Amino acid sequence: TLAAEDIPKWDAVAIKRCIDPPVARGEGRESGAAQAAPSTDRLTLNCVPLSVLIASAYEGFAGGHRNQDKMVRTSLEKFPDWTNSERFTIEAKAQGSPGPEMMRGPMLQALLEDRFRLKVHEETREGKVFILRIAKGGPKMEALEPGGCIPRGFGPSPAGPGNPCPYTAERDGNMGFDGWMNMDSFALIMTSGIRNPQSPLDAPVLNQTGLTGFYHVQWEYSPLNPVAGAPLAASVFTAVQKLGLKFEAGKGPNQFLVFDHAERPTDN
Q1: Phi and psi (nearest 5°) for 77?
Q2: What are the φ/ψ torsions at residue 152 (nearest 5 degrees)?
Q3: Rounded Cα–Cα distance for residues 120 and 72 (Å)
Q4: Distance between CA 214 and CA 218 in Å, rounded?
Q5: 18-49 burial, b if ≥16 CB within 10 A, otherwise e?
Q6: pLDDT tens digit string along 204-218?
Q7: How far apart (Å, rounded) are the C-alpha atoms in residues 34 and 125?
Q8: Residues 35-92 pLDDT 10s
């Protein structure tokens, strides 16, 4: 954790309530097209709920760098409904060029604590988990050969030159993805909460498959809240069997970011 005096400061911050947030699924997300390089001194967050801002500031980029594992495994607890339903647009200019990860982490923390009067604390408690294991008959996924494409990494990825592996997220009406990853990343993606609010699994997923390589994961499953009229895929427990894997309920550490206080900011 950085000391307050070591956190770069903002030159200017503007916050406005977002009255008409985008409603199309996936709108505003990164696509496969080339993306502009992120700014090193400006932060713009369009129509984002406070809960998502908190997830970025206290989990995803805590310490001023990307923390993929913690961002996925930590759940938000006791947050009032408005922190999920109301959205805000933030435009901020930093002093100097602290970089996007510092602005989305410690600097955003400072902004939320100042403008939203936000107070939260962390807790770790023993609780329900889902354990990812190999099912009878063994894994049914293609293993990545040495020298192949470079997998998308939600956890550690192999370094080196090469082409990125193709990856497709989400399916119309259902959840799912088609891409190359290790089993740690698969468990992280499937953990309900900050990164996957539509996961039917209501607890963290821990990888205990013993598989250390990267695999081609192709699957589709029914979301927590299905789209009306959409044809449903198999349940998550049935779908995972097609990969030669299974989810088993168990006990393990659960991480929580607990709400203490927040106020709606005034527009400026």
Answers
A1: -130, 140
A2: -70, 135
A3: 18
A4: 13
A5: beebeeeeeeeeeeeeeeeeeeebebebebbb
A6: 889 999 999 999 999
A7: 42
A8: 356 899 999 999 999 988 998 898 878 888 876 555 445 778 899 999 988 999 999 9
